Structures are given as structure tokens and as C-alpha cells.
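Late entry, written up from scratch paper. The run itself happened at the end of the previous shift, but nothing got recorded in the book at the time, so transcribing now.
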Amino acid sequence: MTPVKKRYLKQHPIRQVYEKLFSVNRLLDVETMRKVDYRNFYRNLEEMLPQYDLVVVCDYGHGLLTQKAIEKLEGTSKFLAVNCQANSSNYGKRPII
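Output as recorded:
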């Protein structure tokens, strides 16, 4: 699932920065994610992975790492390090554990 985050900001009265007032977060549903075309992502993995001695993957559990992507990462990376995070949005949906 892909998070869609909308943040509402206001400009700080003195500094040239913005302050977050609040945010509205939602996850795309599984049916919407199934319509995503991953071919370019897979092609980039195939081209780029062999070029590096170390591949570091941070998985936030939002659906980018499909089973096919995981197989490409495992099969092609010379050395693979994985950081798999759990949060309230992805609890129980992390493919890498």
C-alpha cells in the first residue's frame, strides 16, 4: 500500500519557514496498487543491481517491494542489507521479515 500524505502548512511569522498544522494520511487500496505498472522499476533493478557491491534496501511496507522485486534483489545483489520498519500504517503487511 502506498501512503498518500497531504500536509497543511502555515508560514512562520518571522522566519522563512513553514510549520505543519496537521496532515491527512491515507493508504491506497490493494486494487489500486494492482494497477501500478512496475515494469520500469523491475528493469531499473536488473540494470542497476549488478553495478554495486552493496545494496541497502529500506522497506516501509507500503507495497513497492513486490515478491518479484524481492526475488530480483535477493538474486542479483552481491551483498544485500535490509532495513524493514513497522509502523501503524503497515502493521502486518511487511513482506521482508
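The chain has one domain: 3-84.
(Scratch paper discarded after transcription.)
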